[in-house]
Amino acid sequence: MSKEIPIRCFSISLFVLCNCAADWRVLLLKRSGKMLNGQWCQIAGGIEHGETAWQTALREAREETGLQLSELYSADCCEQFYEAHRDAITVAPVFVAYVDGSCEIMLNHEHSEYRWVSFADAHELLTFPGQRKTLDWIKTHYADNAPSPLLKMPTTR
């Protein structure tokens, strides 16, 4: 009899974009603490009881960066990766937010710094191949092209 590996979905991934001076920039955060310390990443976080995935994206943006998002989209894709310590495959729905270049970022304790970087620089800074694959998808469908209005998420609970 074969063993099944569970597929779990308990977190989200959020890429924040800004069209600064007619050039797209991606917000990356440098992790501090136990998990992925020193690594650059997008906003991510766990879905709390009673929350939808898009509500988690709004909450995590506010908690990790102080941003109150007013333009949020489903990226129409998921990140997926294997976690050895859980012996499980994790799937995380991806979201994209657009913000103004003058927005103020206020980091919480989970991050030590942030950067607005080009897609090319983000590609170099992100740690995992799955993140870079997702970044390529977002560039094609959310920076180089306008997203479908059907993918727009609510921004109020």
UniProtKB/TrEMBL annotation:
- Give the organism the record lists: Kosakonia pseudosacchari
Name it. NUDIX hydrolase
Q: Which Pfam families would you find in this protein's record? A: NUDIX
The UniProt keyword set, sorted, is:
Hydrolase
Cofactor(s) the protein requires to work: Mg(2+)
Sequence ranges assigned to domain Nudix hydrolase in this UniProt record:
5-139
What the entry lists under InterPro entries is as follows:
NUDIX_hydrolase-like_dom_sf, NUDIX_hydrolase_CS, NUDIX_hydrolase_dom, Nudix_hydrolase_domain
Q: Record's PROSITE patterns? A: NUDIX, NUDIX_BOX
What would you give as a GO molecular function for this chain, any one?
hydrolase activity
